[in-house]
Amino acid sequence: MTFMGRLLVVVQVILAVCFMAFAGAVFSVQTSWKEKATNLDQQLTTEKDEYERLNKDYEALKTDTNEQIKNLTDSETGLKVERDNLTRELEDKQNKLNEEIKASDTQREVARIATLEAEERRKEAVELRKQNKKLHDQNNALAAIKRALEDEIFNLDVKEQNTIQRQERLVAELAKLRNLVRQANVSDGTMNVADVKEPPPLVEGRVTETKRGLRNGNDLIAFSLGSDDGIQLGHGLSVYRTGDKQQGRRPKYLGEIKVVHVTPDRAVGEVVLKAKNGVIEKGDNVTTKL
């Protein structure tokens, strides 16, 4: 056998061994994949069962979760409403608190002002008491002066009444004497007593009109007495104003007038004496009694 032949035999043997090894490997690999496929099928079935179980659990969990989410959503809505209500209530309470604080501040300010006013009033009352005491003292002094003046006025009134009565007696006596003289027709050589005017009768009237004198002339007074009342030219009359006790006004003597013009029911007199305590006006009284 040649070298080539021996080489080929060796190659064949090697190839045979390789084929045998390859066949064994293929058989081994084929058996291993079948078992793996069977195991994988079993695992797949188990995984499917587990998936279905987990899917059911998931659906149940999803349902529970959705229910819980709904409940939580409802709770959240309720809490939001409650929160809004609490917020509004808090705002209302805050507004009321602010108003109460403002009212309290106002009351404190009012109290402070009232305190200041009370202090000012106290000071004013003290000052008024001082002034009242002073006025009271002045009033007492004026009351004493008034009593003295009233006593003096009373005495003057008594004197006035006595004077009036005495004047009336004298006028009556003078009238009688003049009548006697006129009847006896006695004369002193210079004038006839019968020509002497009789004194005015005791009458009273009212001032009806006044006229001021021009260029320093005397004032003229018209009054409601005339020749029918016994008034004659040259008669003198007194003018006065009556008092009013309710209003505290006393009678006033205003002056003397002399008759310068006479009509039956009216006369005009010229002011011959003016009093300093008043001015003759319409409505004042004229009389022959004073």
What distinguishing features does this structure have?
290 residues; alpha+beta; Thrombin, subunit H; 63% helix
Give a short overview.
This protein has 290 residues and is of the alpha+beta class. The chain is built from 1 helix and 6 strands.
Tell me what you see in this structure.
- With 290 residues, this protein is α+β, with helices and mostly antiparallel strands.
- The protein has two domains: 39-156; 200-290, Beta Barrel (Thrombin, subunit H).
- It is built from one helix and six strands.
- It has a six-stranded antiparallel beta barrel.
- β4 and β5 (267-274) form a beta hairpin.
- The longest helix has 182 residues, at 3-184.
- The radius of gyration is 74 Å and the shape is rod-shaped.
Helical residues, percent: 55-70%
Mean pLDDT: 81
- Derived structural class: alpha+beta
Q: What spatial form do the alpha-carbon principal axes imply? A: rod-shaped
Largest sheet: 6 strands, antiparallel, barrel
In the predicted model, the low-confidence regions spanning at least 5 consecutive residues are: 187-196
Order of helices and strands: HEEEEEE
Task: Give the strand content.
Answer: 5-15%
Number of helices: 1
* Radius of gyration (Å): 74 Å
End-to-end CA span: 214 Å
Domain count, please report it: 2
Count of distinct strands = 6
Give the strand order of the largest sheet, numbering strands 1, 2, ... along the chain. Answer: 1-2-5-4-3-6
